Amino acid sequence: MEQRAVIESQVRVRAKKKRRLNRRKLTINSVLTVLGILTIYTLATIVPAHFKVIEAVNEFMGNLKIMFLSPNVGNDTFSKLLSALGQSIYLAGLTTIAGAFGGFVMALLSANNLAPRWLSQIMKSLMASIRAIPTILWVLIYSVSLGLGADAAVIGLTFHSVAYLAKVFANSIEELPQDTIEALKVGGIGILPIIAQAVIPTVKSRLLSWTFIRFEINFANAVVVGAAAGAGGIGYQLYMASSFYFDFHEVGMIIYLILAFTFGLELVSRRLRAKFIEA
């Protein structure tokens, strides 16, 4: 009898799980169906009556052909475009380095195995609230008080970089065994020697990896804020060429320069990862 009761209980549990999964599946399918209907309706109503799809597609393909098959410097010079690219790289590098130092300090205050629990929770909540706001919005927020330009871009990118790196650095630090740190504290070693002699040597490869990833993100952000916040650089040149001059030849040249740097950055990233991180 007891065995039969156990079997019936297991059957009821399985049936309950199956009903829960069916309800979840029905909910997901319903939401996707509604979203699909709304998307189709929006596309049908947002397109003007005089809009000609075939002509628009042909014009779009023609612009792509101009950009990628016949790029040139347009109204600018090649040296000017290279200089603008260098400004974006410098902006990305500066904000990444500043963000790495600030993020490491915040990570030490956020790591559960180093900071008091109450302080760790406060810092993690603060960093999460900063990360919740996109980088471009931070740049625009600072541009209200500082004006459009490089100053707002530097502060905005650095601000978000600190919050981003604080999270990933703290996660790396928290992978250290709590027992090891407690043993060092019991042995009379202060927090600064623990950080210098135990924490940094252990996690430095992961910190370097995350910093380089953030540099790639900041370069993309530097291109965006160059156009959106008037911070200059290659993003501003791209904005002027596409929105003011409508010179798609120059747009193609700028895109190729950005892609060339991105591919070069990926090669350097692989070499650094092989030499310092995976070694």
UniProtKB/TrEMBL annotation:
Residues 85-267 form the ABC transmembrane type-1 domain. One of its GO terms (biological process) is transmembrane transport. SUPFAM superfamilies: MetI-like (SSF161098). Keywords: Cell membrane, Membrane, Transmembrane, Transmembrane helix, Transport. The chain crosses the membrane at residues 26-51, 89-115, 136-163, 183-203, 215-239, 251-268. The keyword Secreted does not apply. It is a multi-pass membrane protein. Belongs to the binding-protein-dependent transport system permease family. This is Phosphonate ABC transporter, permease protein PhnE.
